[in-house]
Please model this.
Amino acid sequence: MDPRPVFGRFITPLLDLLPACRHRRECTELDDETWITLGLQRVLSTSPSGRGFLQSHPDQPLEPGTSNPLPPRSGHYFEALKSRRRLALCTELNAGLLRSEAALALPDRLAAFPCLGDFDIFATDGHWHDAATHDTQRLSSGAKAPTGHLYTRNLRTGLIAQLQCLDQSPKKHEHEMKALKRTTIDELRQGAPVGRKVLHVYDRAGIDFGQWHKWKQGSGIYVLSRTKENMTLETCGELPFDQGDPMNAGVLADELVHGSYGAVMRRVRYQDPIMGNDYEFLTNVLDGAIPPGVLAYLYFLRWSIEKVFDESKNKLGETKAWATSGTAKTMQAQFICLVFNLLQIMESELRKEGVSNVAEEERQDRRAARSKAGVEKKGLVYPATHGMGRSTTQHSVKFIRWLNAHLHRPTP
Model:
């Protein structure tokens, strides 16, 4: 049995990275290890406010090595939330965690698709939550301006990262494409080595064909989305595909199209055999070696980032901003990413030791069996893709409650 306390094991991948961080500094009032520990514990705690979190925090560590530091003075804690240096440290830690040995040991959820071997693939989207209690920023309607962030989820590892803070406009919600355009190439590539392609799966808010062309030509960044209802696209060619391949079940056409923007795009027309809904997917990935059914499946995997947002709101209780400054808002987003990624790593390690969410796995099997039976009853072919990369999209509330119950205990 692993002798480390539960929270000590949870945080170990971060503490292993901390000594080498460029933004680490010595601070006698609130050292960096304590700051990181408190940030993680605040996300995991049920306290609705920062002061409530500090007041509910144990006054003394239970015993050495339990990762249960003394709480700082509230004034110093809230000042630290505004520290750009500490934000840079959190960002550096999350970037390091995404490339760590623990992350590389996670199973590849797309390993069953060798046609995607040249791509790092991400589901990317924006997420909004309520403003901090004392935030005075207002929309033109007079309502408090919510706080928004762009997040991206690696569809291979399941890990997430924050790309941008969205609440830059004082009058209205900033459009997500505007924020994407000011996101750096390095951030969009998420550490992918030179020569490797990157694909972002985005909803219709991410459509800008001129920008797609710039990303593809200059940086090897591709986008997969859905067509908008008011789009005028002209078919200029077709890509042959194997209609007998179960991976292409539901594909109606695989076409090359162009419009007023000039560049040629790929449009996959698809009818979902399970629900019967019609879709049109649009991408600048023109490689016919990637079956159109796989592109359709990747778009459906985009839903996994919505599950991250649901977990953040309903299981971790992160429904409003911690503070009013842009630095503090981004700090909160970084801590949410760190907690989610550490949960992902710990759950994977426990699964290797024989501890898994059997009930959820059985529910997934039953849902898949019902869907397959329903499709076959209609005389259609069940998409083979649906059984090739299946995995849990969020952590169970039981797992989070178990970890939360042992935040301040020496339980191994």
Q: What stands out?
A: Residues 6 and 86 are 25 Å apart (CA to CA). The two ends are 8 Å apart (CA to CA). The beta strands are 119-129, 147-154, 160-165, 197-201, 221-226, 234-238, 251-258, 265-271, 278-283.
